Amino acid sequence: MSELTHLDRTGAANMVDVSDKAETSRIARAEGRVVMLRETVDLIRAGDAKKGDVLGTARLAGIMAAKRTHELIPLCHPLLLTKVKVECEVDDTLPGVRVAAEVGVRGQTGVEMEALTAVSVACLTLYDMVKAADRGMRIEGIRLLAKSGGRSGEYRAEA
Question: What is the pLDDT of residues 3-17, one digit of tens each?
Answer without folding.
Answer: 667 777 777 777 787
